[in-house]
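Sequence design from tokenized structure. All designs in this work follow the same two-part layout: the structure record, then the generated sequence. An example of the structure record is given first.
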């Protein structure tokens, strides 16, 4: 019996434990099962595909004017010597003013900044017209139509000099330099394989058939600087000089190159080969006609009366002689016939001289006194 009781108690304890567990389970709120979030995706860097190669660069040009007729051939002329260290040569060219061609002389110019080189402008035949592509300053020389301008510009690049740091060195084998003035020089022989035919434009009938090289296309993408104000003034001065019109000089201008910009009449101006006349000189004041306006003397205001030119009669009033009244007749001036300026003398145009009108009371009294004296002179003696 004792064994039975033990078995019962054992079974009863187990049952109580199970019952208690059931009661406790019923009292606890269980959360629904949620699986953990997935891990973030693995980021793998992929290089972008290579960009397509850029198209071939074309020369950056600025068309300024257009003409329907081709420019004349380039004239042949010597180069003036470089006037000052640091100046660069800019070759001459024909320019269209809207109705005819004018020659813009070659000249030496100060660059706008150290390290810049000049790319000349050129005429190009495009769409049945001749278009002028303006020159520019840049770190390298670009395309200028393949035109052989000479003096280092043989159609491509420039061999007349180079920058050496902050100084420009001149190739004395190509450019005209005076070594007593210019000391940065070198001598490098240049072999010119370009045909010299004096053609002044690119493309079209009879034009230079040249295309930009890879180096010239790269130069077109570099920063450019426009012509300097002195270069622009040089062009305007050329357009105001009648002797530079092609219709006047027949393609052989008497002012082919100048030592400095806009110096059309300065010493050192050279003419083209075959020019009909030598380079003109500015007229001196002594050679100017008497009626031409003359510049004022130093320190003289612009509107001050000018002295007469040599040999020209003076119309200025003469001061009275010592002891002579102010209105007394003056002796004739130099170059005047006797009696000129005397009372009653005939006027040069056979007209009576103008009467002197008194301007104040004192002059009126003097005039009445002279009239009374004349009346007494004509009275008969009594």
């Amino acid at each position: 019996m004792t064994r039975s009781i033990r078995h019962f108690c054992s079974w009863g304890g187990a049952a109580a434990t199970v019952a208690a567990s059931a009661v406790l389970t019923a009292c606890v709120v269980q959360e629904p099962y949620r699986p953990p979030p997935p891990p973030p995706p693995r980021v793998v860097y992929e290089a972008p595909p290579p960009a397509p190669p850029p198209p071939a660069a074309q020369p950056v040009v600025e068309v300024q004017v257009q003409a329907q007729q081709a420019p004349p051939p380039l004239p042949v002329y010597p180069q003036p010597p470089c006037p000052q260290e640091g100046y660069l040569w800019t070759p001459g060219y024909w320019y269209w003013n809207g109705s005819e061609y004018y020659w813009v002389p070659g000249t030496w110019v100060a660059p706008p900044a150290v390290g810049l080189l000049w790319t000349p402008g050129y005429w190009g035949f495009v769409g049945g017209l001749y278009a002028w592509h303006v020159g520019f300053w840049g770190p390298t020389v670009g395309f200028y139509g393949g035109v052989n301008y000479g003096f280092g510009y043989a159609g491509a690049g420039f061999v007349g000099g180079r920058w050496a740091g902050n100084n420009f060195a001149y190739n004395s084998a190509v450019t005209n330099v005076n070594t007593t003035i210019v000391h940065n020089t070198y001598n490098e022989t240049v072999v010119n394989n370009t045909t010299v035919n004096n053609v002044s434009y690119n493309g079209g009938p009879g034009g230079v058939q040249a295309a930009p090289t890879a180096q010239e296309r790269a130069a077109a993408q570099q920063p450019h600087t426009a012509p300097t104000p002195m270069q622009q003034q040089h062009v305007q001065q050329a357009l105001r000089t009648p002797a530079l019109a092609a219709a006047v000089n027949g393609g052989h201008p008497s002012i082919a190159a100048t030592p400095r910009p806009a110096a059309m009449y300065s010493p050192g101006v050279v003419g083209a080969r075959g020019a009909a006349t030598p380079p003109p000189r500015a007229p001196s004041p002594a050679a100017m006609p008497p009626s031409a306006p003359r510049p004022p003397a130093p320190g003289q205001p612009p509107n001050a009366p000018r002295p007469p030119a040599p040999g020209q009669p003076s119309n200025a009033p003469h001061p009275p002689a010592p002891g002579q009244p102010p209105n007394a007749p003056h002796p004739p001036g130099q170059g005047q016939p006797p009696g000129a300026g005397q009372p009653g003398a005939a006027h040069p145009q056979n007209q009576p001289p103008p009467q002197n009108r008194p301007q104040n009371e004192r002059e009126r009294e003097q005039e009445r006194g002279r009239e009374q004296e004349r009346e007494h002179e004509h009275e008969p003696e009594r």
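The first helix runs from residue 2 to 27. We note this feature because it recurs in several other targets discussed in the main text.
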